[in-house]
Every structure is written in C-alpha cells, then in structure tokens.
Amino acid sequence: MLRFIVLRLIWMVPSLVAVSFLAFVLIQLPPGDYVTTYIATLAASNEVVDQNTAADLRARFGLDQPMAVQYFKWITGILLEGNFGLSFEWQQPVSELIWERMALTLVLTVSTLIVTWGIAMPIGVFSAVKKYSFGDYVATFFSFLGLAIPSFLLALVLMYIAAVQLGQEVGGLFSERFVNAPWSFAKVVDLIAHLWVPVIILAVSGTASLIRVMRANMLDELNKPYVTTARAKGLSEFALLVKYPLRVALNPFISTIAWLLPNLVSGSIIVAIVLSLPTAGPMLLQSLMSQDMYLAGAFVLLICALTLIGSLVSDILLALVDPRIRLE
After folding, report:
1. 97-106, 171-180, 187-196, 261-270: range with lowest mean pLDDT
2. Residue 135 sits in the same domain as residue 246
3. 76 with 118, same domain?
C-alpha cells in the first residue's frame, strides 16, 4: 500500500505539469489577450488607449513573448519557488489571491461532502432494504426532486427564508463586521452560522444522485448467496448489512470522491455568484473572462490537483474497505 501511494504521488507531478500546459494553452486560445480585454473595458467608458500604450502594457506583462516562453517562466516559477505569477487584473501575486479563497472553498467542499454522505448513505440503504415500501417511494420522489431543482433557484428560496423568516444576514460567508476582521473564534462561529445555506444548496443534487447510486448497489448485493449464508448463520440483520453488502456497495460510492471534490469547486460557480460567496468559483470565472491567464491557470491547476488527490483518496479508501482490491 505504501509503495502504491508513493508511486501515485510521484506520478502526480508530471500529470500536473501536463495538465497545466493544456490549461495554459486553452486559456490563451480565444482571440486577443488581457490587454485586449482591458482596452475594450476602457473603450466602454469612452477612454481611448493608443497602440504604444497597449504595446507597453503587453511588454510589462510579458504578453509580447511567445506562448512557450510565457508557460516556461510560469511553470518554473511554480515548481522552483512556489510563485504562481502576478494577476494582471488585481495587480497582486496570485498566491495571495487564491489561498484564502481556496481555503474557504475547501471548508465548504468538505462540509458539503460530510452532509452529502451522512444523508445519502443511510437513506440509500433504507431504500434498498425496504424496496417498494412507502419510505422507498418517498426517498425516490425527493431524490428526483433534488436532481430536478436548479441550484440557483434553491439558493434564492433559501436566501428568502434566511433573510425574511429567520432574520439572518444572507450573501457571503461572514457578517459584515467579520469580512475583513482577522481570524478568531468569533469569526469561526460566524462562518459556521452562515455555512448552512450554501451547504444545503450544494448537497441537495449530490445527495439525490448518491441515494440512487447506494440503492442500486445495495439491491445488487442483497440477494447474493453470501448474504443468504450469513443470514442462515444467525447474524442479526443490522450486523449482516454493515459487515457484508454495505462494504461492497460502498465501492462506487467511494469512487465518487474523484469527481465530487473538483465538481464542488467548479460546479458551484452560479451558486457562489448568487450568494456572493468569497470562494474560488466567481474569481475563476472572472479571470477566464478577462483572460487573466496566470490567475485562471492557477485555479485550473488547483482543481486538477483536487481531482488527482480525490482519485488517490478514493483508491486508498477502496483498498481499506474491500480486501479484493488490496490483493490486486
């Protein structure tokens, strides 16, 4: 197991380099560059930028160099110095811009993951064990309802409930007095108080789909001979479910970590914009729109890193849960 983990960690480095190159190329594929976007923004305000000023800006940002040179400087800065470059739009180091937003994004992601699993697993097992019962039909109904409701619409409804019915400040993850305040116990409590709205919104669709996955997996296992044998040996129904079919049914469930982590970052952009969340999604969207390539590239690289980390965590958990995978 240790050898497997070490090899996977080693292979992550060239994988991230390859992905970073593809991301860097894709970000620059649209016509123009950041200076073009900047000039268009000024033109909308009736400000004129002459060609010499535009050329000076491109030289200042290094946009007058070939793409390969720009990428080489960026990736070597990351690998050797941990320097993600300078954001063109914000005129700040990218690392200063992304880390706090990524930290808040990970808090939101982990909280959503815990809530999603905590709800989907027991309901999925119950729905399979009590197949075609009233409870199964209720769980199925709410699963399809959760998949059908758009996240942004649910966000608007919960914002109304929180603001009008509960009298809570909505929008963002902090109250106004804690937005720029240093971290303290009071700020953490305030974060937790604001966290429930986005967590519920992001967990709804994920929970709905995972309930169906768990139900289908359990139904596949419940009628197999090893379950009948264990029941004939006198195991209680709860112990039987936990020890045998549930462990096997968890395999596809655990494997969803590989896509769930990056999806919660990149797939929650609309919800983050509606709720004014200081997470990675809105800044990623803005950087792509303005062609702020170093900022956008850093976010894409971190999302890819989350994908690789999620795949590694999935493989480790699968090996711990299923002895057959350990043998292989």
Report:
1. 261-270
2. yes
3. no
Which CATH number covers residue 252? 1.10.3720.10
Percent of the chain with pLDDT over 90: 1
117 — pLDDT class (breaks 50, 70, 90): confident
pLDDT at 74 over 80: yes
At residue 267, does pLDDT exceed 70?
no
Name 105's Cβ contacts closer than 8 Å, sequence gap at least 6. 264, 265, 279, 280, 281
pLDDT digits (tens, 9 = 90+) for 101-113: 888 888 888 888 8
**Would residue 93 count as lying in a domain?**
no
CA distances from 126 to 88, 120, 223, 246, 255 (A): 53, 10, 15, 11, 21
Containing 229, the helix (H) or strand (E) segment is: helix 225-232
One domain, residues 66 and 135: no
Estimate to the nearest angstrom the gap between the alpha carbon of 150 and the chain centroid.
Answer: 18
DSSP assignment of 168-223: ---SSSS-GGGSSSPP-HHHHHHHHHHHHHHHHHHHHHHHHHHHHHHHHHHHHHHT
DSSP state of 224: S
Domain that holds residue 27: 2-81
Same domain for 132 and 201, yes or no, is yes
Q: Is residue 92 one of the residues assigned to a domain? A: no
Confidence of residue 261 (pLDDT cuts 50, 70, 90): low
- Do both 233 and 302 map to the same domain? yes
- Is 213 part of a structural domain of the chain? yes
Rounded average pLDDT over 192-204: 86
